[in-house]
Specification:
2 domains, nine-stranded antiparallel β-sheet, 6 helices, 15 strands, 24% helix
């Protein structure tokens, strides 16, 4: 029973997020002088995407693939999908029946779910250069993290909003494409592409040789970041760089992960994400006696 409540709670959260996602890119851009320049730089027609069934790790999933035919390096690509007009009550009934069995939801839970539009999304943080293609990007129910495995469920939705983040010099720009209005809009704010520590911890660890680094924690106690656009071989080379800096004490090493201390008591933890071709890194300062 607790597991059912937990599953439904997660569903309630992700469903509430869906409205936020749908609202991000619907701004009017027809009278925006820059909208033509946006389309010339990022045209949705130049991102040839497809969703179909595929096998990953011996299991069947519904997966997104795409080819970047733009002139820009894409750092994030997301599509949200909303319920199609005209789907039958029988199709909806079959969908909700499958969902109820899959997640062991109660009838009360399902009543709440049925009051909302069916939606899905797919998103990847893979760094994709012009002319490159990627595949095996998972699709998810609603705005959450439950894998979509039934192509019949995907056939109930249609694309709503595409979010494209692209790299230009040292910044990341965000463009939205609204499939309903067929219009583009942009975020005014940009992101710094390479976010490095402003504390002494940044000098205690190698700087990854990549274009995109996103910092999540940066204080005197710890520096945590994700670096994007690495192969597993490049990750292993980065581990070797850390070893050369003395991170070899109390080491724990297995494929795609490395943890160790150095003689000063600094600790590094490295983890490789094969799906996004990224690595997560945390460096922690030695604890003081008061801690």
């Amino acid at each position: 029973m607790k597991e059912k409540v937990k599953i439904f709670t997660i569903f309630a959260i992700i469903l509430s997020m869906t409205g936020c996602l749908a609202g991000c890119g619907s701004g009017e851009t027809a009278n925006n002088p820059g909208s033509r320049a946006i389309k010339e730089k990022i045209n949705i027609k130049d991102i040839a995407w497809n969703v179909d069934e595929g096998i990953v790790g011996g299991e069947r999933y519904v997966l997104l693939s795409y080819t970047n035919d733009t002139q820009c390096t894409i750092t994030n690509f997301e599509i949200t999908f909303n319920e199609k007009d005209g789907i039958t009550e029988e199709e909806k009934s079959d969908f909700y029946s499958d969902i109820q069995k899959k997640f062991e939801l109660s009838d009360e839970d399902m009543d709440d779910l049925k009051s909302r539009s069916i939606s899905m999304h797919a998103e990847t943080d893979r760094v994709v250069k012009p002319g490159e293609s990627i595949s095996n990007v998972n699709c998810y129910y609603y705005g959450g993290s439950f894998y979509l495995k039934d192509i019949n469920h995907y056939n109930l939705v249609e694309p709503d909003i595409a979010t494209i983040k692209y790299l230009e010099e040292d910044k990341i720009f965000t463009v939205y494409y609204d499939y309903g209005s067929k219009k583009y809009s942009t975020e005014e704010k940009t992101e710094i592409a390479y976010q490095w520590s402003q504390t002494d911890l940044g000098s205690k660890i190698p700087k990854p040789d990549v274009k995109v680094v996103k910092s999540s924690i940066d204080d005197k106690a710890s520096f945590m970041f994700d670096a994007y656009g690495l192969t597993l071989e490049q990750f292993n080379a980065y581990v070797d760089e850390c070893k050369e800096l003395g991170y070899t004490d109390e080491s724990n090493n297995y494929e795609g992960s490395y943890t160790a201390d150095n003689a000063e008591g600094y600790n590094v933890h490295l983890y490789y994400d094969e799906r996004d071709h990224s690595m997560s890194v945390t460096i922690s300062a030695p604890k003081t006696e008061s801690e």
